């Protein structure tokens, strides 16, 4: 910054005035004393950088001052100052000092001290003052002969703020622009979800690759800046990455955790006593459904538009919503040996309750997960006896008293539909499912693979059972869908007859030798095939092994 005019002028007017307020003991008016104090503050101020966001740390009750001037030769130029409190409310003001008409000359030394004080008093004025914790911007016009002082004060506790000064209004904005209507609209409220929408920022249309929206969800209050939100998260003792960068899938989180993806670095934030805080970046989409919320709970939602190149952000006007109360699920009675197929809608009905009254001391619960992800919770006379996420086939053998009441609650843990088969019976009741091997995986042998055949193997049991093998030709882009969407409870009746390869019986009393292999012939070269094995027990209900995808050799 070129301030030669300032240093020539300052010794004649500001310095003499400063000395006056220390040496003259005569009474002075409040306005004169205030002016002298303001002028003295220029000597204890730092230069505020132009065109750069500056972080300033404030100690309680100790003011901090910065000044700036324009380049020499610019008569009138616009400038703006944006202050972002990152925690508690602060006080800040802008003072301007302008020289009186005419230039300083050596003859000014002969001027009486009182006239100097009167002239200096007319040169300093406060042009802006603010107190609060909102992001505030002052815009004005400056001349090259004006000096500006910014004063900041925190009266509550130590804190920090960011300040952005710019005198160049032609090369764009550091902060992303907000739309004319910066409000967040609540589109739909569910028991565990809230759908939000907001108007697009003009910056997204101009700089789509470097701009994105980030959403913050918490149970305490709204935040007026991303800086304030990050400060609150850090003060709770949680780890927070410096910059939000990529989108993520919040449904992958554990119930007690929150995930943030930052510059390809994944961080997990745990719940605090005051409730969880989530930050999620959604790219340039201006609608988002927040999942995995608790029923009958008030949440606060904030949307920030973030410039990934500068890390600068602007906040939409926050909103809040209360999720709906979870309706009492209908209770279905379980009967001895009867199988119930429960389908859970991830959007509408995520809970399902079953009840069983024991007629024997020992009770056997069987669960077969067919699709999706399901958590089971079993209570006996109101006390929890089992609770876990289901995987494949699961047995629970429980011992209690006659006429004990068992309650089984099933809950879908994802947004898509889930389903599970349930059976309750006395422990000695004929088992619904066949005896299972240690693993339901199908193994393929790469060295035995040819252009026209594939060899697979799977484990058996000590009980003679029937095994049926099916194959299906698939394309590369169908693998994920086939593996994820498969109904693990469906039997061969859902398969096309042409897909059946063979059925065979086998067992071995020595589990170490209870392994069988099968070579599937008549295949096409360089082709992907999906192989399934179904195990049938005495009841005739099948258990499906984990599907296996194998590709035949292209050249032999």
From TrEMBL:
Origin: domain of life: Eukaryota
Fibronectin type-III domain mapped to chain residues: 176-313, 434-542
Alphabetical list of Pfam families matching this protein: NDNF (PF10179), NDNF_C (PF19433), NDNF_N (PF24354)
Keywords recorded for this protein, A-Z: Glycoprotein, Neurogenesis, Repeat, Secreted, Signal
Keyword flag Ribonucleoprotein: no
Chief subcellular location: secreted
Summary of the function given for this chain in its UniProt record: Secretory protein that plays a role in various cellular processes. Acts as a chemorepellent acting on gonadotropin-releasing hormone (GnRH) expressing neurons regulating their migration to the hypothalamus. Also promotes neuron migration, growth and survival as well as neurite outgrowth and is involved in the development of the olfactory system. May also act through the regulation of growth factors activity and downstream signaling. Also regulates extracellular matrix assembly and cell adhesiveness.
Signal peptide: 1-21
SMART domains listed in its UniProt record: FN3
Gene Ontology MF term list: heparin binding
Keyword Signal: yes
GO biological process terms on file: nervous system development
A cellular component annotation (GO) from this entry: extracellular region
Gene: Ndnf_0
Protein species of origin: Chloropsis cyanopogon
Gene3D superfamilies per UniProt: Immunoglobulins
UniProt protein name: Protein NDNF
InterPro entries attached to this UniProt entry: FN3_dom, FN3_sf, Ig-like_fold, NDNF, NDNF_C, NDNF_Fn(III)_1, NDNF_N
Location(s), subcellular: Secreted
